[in-house]
Design goal:
Blueprint: E1 6-9, E2 29-32, E3 41-43, E4 48-58, E5 63-68, H1 71-77, E6 79-81, E7 86-88, E8 95-102, E9 108-110, E10 115-123
Antiparallel strand pairs: 1-4, 2-10, 3-9, 4-8, 5-7, 5-10, 6-8
């Protein structure tokens, strides 16, 4: 499935490549840091920062964009998207920014042009809420957080 994604480049995004799929099988477009070339963002351990991409997007109605971590940043440096997945609604027209956090042990520098997250464009389902007096019973019932155990044996 392909949808059109209109992209407006802001002045501080000039000179950076547009997000792209890095491989033929990739689900996400890589988002790139658009901070000034002479001002890398340095995330100290436990620190978070909003990183600009220099882009505004226009999604087709019925679609959203999800901002997700890059696995390499998370594994190698402990840097991830704090509100993952972040949701960009079809009617949002502000700059796409990425909320990164450093859960690693060392400061992490984010120079201009760093691939910081991935963006997945996905269809949206909307629910019609119906208030009821009871719900259907299931085998799981009220079991929540951890109720199904860590292994098949429980």
């Amino acid at each position: 499935m392909t949808t059109t994604l209109r992209v407006l480049r802001l002045a501080h995004g000039e000179g950076l490549p547009l997000p792209r799929y890095e491989t033929d099988g990739a689900a996400g477009l890589d988002l790139i840091a658009a901070n000034p070339a002479d001002a890398p963002v340095v995330l100290k351990p436990s620190e978070r920062a909003l990183i600009p991409t220099g882009l505004v997007i226009q999604l087709e109605p019925g679609f959203e964009a999800q901002v997700r971590p890059r696995s390499g940043l998370a594994f190698k440096h402990g840097v991830t998207v704090l509100n993952a997945p972040g949701t960009i609604d079809a009617d949002y027209r502000g700059e796409v920014q990425v909320l990164l956090v450093n859960f690693g042990q060392e400061p992490f520098a984010i120079p201009r042009g760093t691939r910081i997250a991935q963006m997945i464009v996905a269809p949206v389902s909307r629910a019609a809420l119906v208030e009821v007096e009871t719900l259907d019973e299931t085998a799981r019932g009220h079991g929540g957080f951890g109720s199904t155990g860590l292994t098949r044996e429980g």
